[in-house]
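3.2 Worked example (two chains)
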Amino acid sequence: MSSEALRIGFVPEHFSTPLHFAQKHYGLHATLIPFPSGTGHMVTAIRAGEIDIGIGLTEGWIAGLGKEGFEGDGGYRLVGTYVDTPLCWAISTGAQRSEITSVASLKGSKIGVSRIGSGSYVMGFVLADQQGWLADKTHFSDTVVLHNFENLRNAVNSGEADFFMWEHFTSKKYYDSGEIRRVGEIYTPWSSWKIVASTKLTKSGDARVQTLFEKLDQGIKHFNEHQDEAAEYISTELGYTEPDAREWLKTVKFPAHTEGVKDEVVRNCVSVLRKAGVLVEGKGLDVDAMVVKV
């Protein structure tokens, strides 16, 4: 069992660069499985036994464990921290949607999300809470599930949805091309990426998880020390321009040690998600049960 390659779910965006380096340069023994549709899809996959590890957005993982009604033991636990900095979510609409002039004009509109429970879904509630729209229950007229970034872009141009939120640098080239238009931005009030392991792994104390942390730490160190290589990889393999890749490199901070999750980060995220109405106190897992030391 322990000699088998871990199946690691990840989002094939610029943030995945240290993971790529861990495998390319430091022998990470894993099958990397891309999930371009994001964290919500990985929640489904890890519960279905399709992946062993997931690297995704903090709010998506925590929302999945904090909601009522999940079956069994929830399927996964938080075990590590992948990115220390918050995520900048760009708020986008269609290129010709002249009636949408500001974030304030989005009240009562149709929000496009990749999946229910995904980061794009959860951050809609955080946005509504920050804007003071939750009190009168008219924050959004509809939530339109569109599965992936391409569908989201098409939907705001067709009118199927009015706006959506996605990571800034991934969205930027579509602003530059004129396909979609930027309305504003919102930052996560927490560090943005976490590592989860299936409960099958956490219960067995599988040694491969420790090895994963060691290899990721090496990949991050390599990333920090070889910024030119990182920019080249991001711009040639992941579809970003080199100027955008270099600009992103200035904004992101990965931890020196990926093992472990700070208790206050999880508590803060749960608190904000409860305030925003995503989670309900007394439902789902307690904060202390969401994190496991492997």
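3.2.1 Second chain
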Amino acid sequence: MKILIVLAHPELKSMNGAMFERAIAVLTTAGHEVQVSDLYRAQFNPVSDRNNFTTTYDAAFFKQQLEEMHAVESAGFAADIAQEQQKVEWCDLMIWQFPLWWFTVPGVLKGWVDRVFAMGRFYGNSRCYETGMLQGKKALLSLTTGGSEESYLKDGLHGDLAGILKPVHRGMLEFVGFSVLAPQVVYAPVRQSVEERETLLVDWGTRLEGIFEEQPIVVGGY
């Protein structure tokens, strides 16, 4: 199978970096094809504007969705965006590896979505959610938190993690047609010992060995 892993963390020696590298090792050893998008090392530009395109639909007024649809018709996406779009279309499973920052994905990953998930390419003409253009593909969020597991329960300090992740699960991934697998969550790795973190990495690898046997979760609407 074909897997795209998108890493959004500035430090490769972090737990996120370790999970990223463990995923690559386990999946390639299992015989899968793996491509990566390491957004910080690639210095990916998260700012969405006319630099997304090599063509112009309306030079007098910028409306991104109209420019995206024009770029689909004219092969007018900038090279960095076209490359990422091809990776997304290529994969059977997409994994995002990131730290939960301010209750969402890091800005560079949100900017990647803003620029890459183009109208006319991944959604549009009433094709979204269950009819999104990427239907048949699966997506998985693999993330770390600063707080403990107890703080992300329904009655915890921060509230239910499933609710926190819903704008990503539903509003980004399911919107373009992905089926969503249960998230892989490592709570407060900074508070864990080296041995505890290694156990979590082993568990992550074990899960990945059978990842294509997993069924999607029910995210639900807003």
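3.3 Remarks
The mean pLDDT is 96.
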